[in-house]
């Protein structure tokens, strides 16, 4: 499990694409200080397993499902990526629950500075919009952020200067693709309610009629 608090920006040292699989090696420092083979590392929000490592590099295998469901196909040698180690038991929980399992790829529609913040409007796959609410959580390229607006199939997020400087989102522009992970709690609730609607008992209409929603 991750929290969406990016520890450092790493660099793709080498990448070998084989149809819909990839061998990826990154250069980093902070996340490799205590790395072990088999550790889970989030790269742009994608949970991957360390296969080999050196003092300043780590390598990973990317399977077809990850290749198809993320923006990894856009990575090249020299690409900058967000990095986060899996949360240690008893560690500080600074963001929100992030699994590292990408739900879909969004596209930045606009990037608008306002005072000390920068607002990003992101277009989402239509099937993901049900999981986002105003002031809810979203992970964008693995970065834990707050949703400040939901309109149609787009969400609005706001980045403070620290996030602009310390994540790859600061260098993203309109037209760029980003990995999206929905709020896990919201997904579970939506799944539960969808199943219950077809069964006798609690349903969305029941909850609404009785003042729960």
From TrEMBL:
Keyword entries, A-Z: Repeat, Riboflavin biosynthesis, Transferase
Any one biological process term the GO annotation gives: riboflavin biosynthetic process
Claim: Zinc is one of the keywords in the record: no
Lumazine-binding repeats: 1-96, 97-193
Domain (Lumazine-binding): residue spans on this chain: 1-96, 97-193
Pathway(s) this gene product operates in, as recorded in its UniProt entry: Cofactor biosynthesis; riboflavin biosynthesis; riboflavin from 2-hydroxy-3-oxobutyl phosphate and 5-amino-6-(D-ribitylamino)uracil: step 2/2
EC numbers on record: 2.5.1.9
Main enzyme class: transferase
InterPro entries noted in UniProt: ATP_synth_asu-like_sf, Lumazine-bd, Lumazine-bd_dom, Riboflavin_synthase-like_b-brl
Signal sequence region: none
GO molecular function: riboflavin synthase activity
PROSITE patterns: LUMAZINE_BIND
Catalytic activity: 2 6,7-dimethyl-8-(1-D-ribityl)lumazine + H(+) = 5-amino-6-(D-ribitylamino)uracil + riboflavin
Subunit record text: Homotrimer.
PANTHER family linked to this entry: RIBOFLAVIN SYNTHASE, RIBOFLAVIN SYNTHASE ALPHA CHAIN
Described purpose of this protein according to its UniProt entry: Catalyzes the dismutation of two molecules of 6,7-dimethyl-8-ribityllumazine, resulting in the formation of riboflavin and 5-amino-6-(D-ribitylamino)uracil.
Protein's name according to its UniProt entry: Riboflavin synthase
């Amino acid at each position: 499990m991750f929290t969406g608090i990016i520890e450092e920006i790493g660099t793709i040292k080498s990448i070998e694409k084989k149809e819909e699989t990839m061998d990826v090696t990154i250069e980093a420092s902070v996340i490799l200080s205590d790395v072990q083979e088999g550790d889970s590392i989030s790269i742009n929000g994608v949970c991957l397993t360390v296969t080999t490592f050196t003092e300043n590099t780590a390598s990973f295998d990317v399977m077809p499902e990850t290749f198809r469901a993320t923006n990894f196909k856009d990575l090249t040698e020299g690409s900058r990526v967000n990095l986060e180690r899996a949360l240690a038991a008893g560690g500080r929980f600074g963001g929100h629950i992030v699994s590292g399992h990408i739900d879909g790829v969004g596209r930045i529609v606009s990037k608008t500075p306002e005072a000390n913040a920068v607002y990003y409007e992101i277009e989402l796959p239509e099937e993901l919009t049900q999981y986002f609410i105003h002031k809810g959580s979203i992970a964008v390229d693995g970065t834990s952020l707050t949703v400040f607006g939901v309109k149609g199939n787009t969400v609005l997020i706001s980045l403070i200067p620290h996030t602009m400087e310390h994540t790859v989102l600061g260098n993203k522009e309109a037209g760029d693709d980003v990995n999206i992970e929905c709020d896990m709690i919201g997904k579970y609730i939506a799944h539960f309610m969808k199943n219950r609607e077809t069964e006798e008992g609690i349903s969305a209409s029941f909850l609404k009629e009785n003042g729960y929603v």
